[in-house]
Amino acid sequence: MLIEFSVSNYRSIHQRQTLSMAAASAYDELLASNTFEVSAGGSLPRLVRSAVLYGPNASGKSTLIAALNFLQELVLRSHQHQAGDALDVVPFKLSPQSRAEDSEFEITFMEGGVRYEYGVRCNAVRVTEEWLFAYPQGRAQKWFHRAWDAEAGKDVYKFSAQFVGGRKRQDWADETLENTLYFSKAVQNKQEQLRLVFDWFKDRLRVVDAPHSLSVGYTMQRCKNAADRQRIVEFMNMADLCIADLRLEESTFAVDQLPKGMPSAVRDQIAKDLDGKKITSVKFVHQDVVTGEGVEFAEEEESDGTRALFAFAGPWLDVTENNRVLVVDELDTSLHPMLVHYLVKRLHLENSKAQLIFTTHDTTLLSQRILRRDQVWFMEKDAQRASKLYPLSDFSPRENEAIERGYLNGRYGGIPFLKDLDFYGV
């Protein structure tokens, strides 16, 4: 369960920006459906099941998601780095001070009934600070802290008594390169106390650029199970696609299956790599309107929306079944607004602890029948052209306020500013 994520000095984000999934105690609407309890006894605030980000193009919505993805990839992959490998981190460039400063990422989440806070400061050359707090029984334990000492030319580590490992803790530190996370290196060296935290990044968190960027491979894999295939058919038919069934077809690769117009060099390389290999494709079965018999349609015969929904179906079911955190940029891409409404409502009613964070330009979601007032966030550029993230709740909206109209009228900001356009040269 994600509690909050913060980032500073990363791409278009300058000052620290924080997205919180904590439910506001001032609001009691949709409490049972749109929020859930984190811990018994209410020692922590309830969390919302979803959060939506609005803002004009280039406001920084995608940057916030990219920052979360960067942190996840750094945790999962940095142990593979070689000495001298640059970190793919870019600071806010529009001031001399920020260009010289590090980027910072911090995330707070629950796993196994324990709250964790993990943070990293880094630049393209090295990790300059790294820390991990655990809160078993609600009391803070600072498991480890790493900080770059420029004068000494080395990383300085501090470990708490609760962080197990004995002498190995420093051995793992000595093996950690300047561009590698101690967290990642220790896990690879079998520090099992960190495994649960690492697995949250590996198994719980799912970051997706956009629904149409998803591969169909995972959904096709799930279609091999009859019960899962039926669930996927039902999931797709909520969009009134009238699909009777899905069938998987295996064939031997042939070069004529490649799209026409592909560059010959690319075509030849793919043909070489796939020559003689088995290829699995999906067939969409619709009913003949006269006879009622099943008629197969190849994937390329279906609309972009149908294909996007099919690719999205498997991951969506996986997220809700396993209480994952799904972060999607432009959820409404290739998906009809009413389908997006259904997805959000369905998540709220699943009675799971799965969470959805997404960006969209679809203002019809701004209804208090769908979202609570603490589930809506905006992003825009400030006077220094830096991205600023802020919640709808900053404006103290009234219950049943016409939020969509207020947003489009500019009351909350986060909308494009368009200069007058003269189409006729007058």
Concise account of the structure shown:
By secondary structure, the protein is α+β, with helices and mostly antiparallel strands.
Could you please describe the fold and organization of this structure?
With 426 residues, this protein is α+β, with helices and mostly antiparallel strands. The protein folds into two domains: 1-210 and 329-426, no CATH class; 214-322, no CATH class. It is 27% helix and 26% strand. The chain contains twelve helices and 18 strands. It has helices at 31-34, 61-77, 96-100, 168-175, 182-188, 195-204, 217-222, 226-237, 264-274, 304-321, 337-349, 403-408, and strands at 2-8, 17-20, 35-36, 47-48, 50-54, 103-111, 114-122, 127-135, 141-149, 154-159, 205-208, 245-252, 278-287, 294-298, 325-328, 355-359, 376-381, 387-391. It has a seven-stranded antiparallel β-sheet. A hairpin with a 6-residue loop joins strand 13 and strand 14 (294-298). The radius of gyration is 24 Å and the shape is globular.
Query: What is the CA-CA span between the terminal residues?
Result: 56 Å
| Poorly predicted segments | 421-426
Q: How many domains make up the coordinates?
A: 2
Please estimate the helix content.
Answer: 25-40%
Beta-sheet strand percentage?
25-35%
Physical arrangement of strands within the biggest beta sheet: 2-1-6-7-8-9-10
Largest sheet: 7 strands, antiparallel
State the order of secondary-structure elements, H for helix, E for strand: EEHEEEHHEEEEEHHHEHHEHEEHEHEEEH
Estimated structural class: alpha+beta
What Rg do the Cα atoms give?
Answer: 24 Å
Q: What's the shape? A: globular
What is the strand tally? 18
What is the averaged pLDDT score?
Answer: 91
- How many helices does DSSP assign? 12
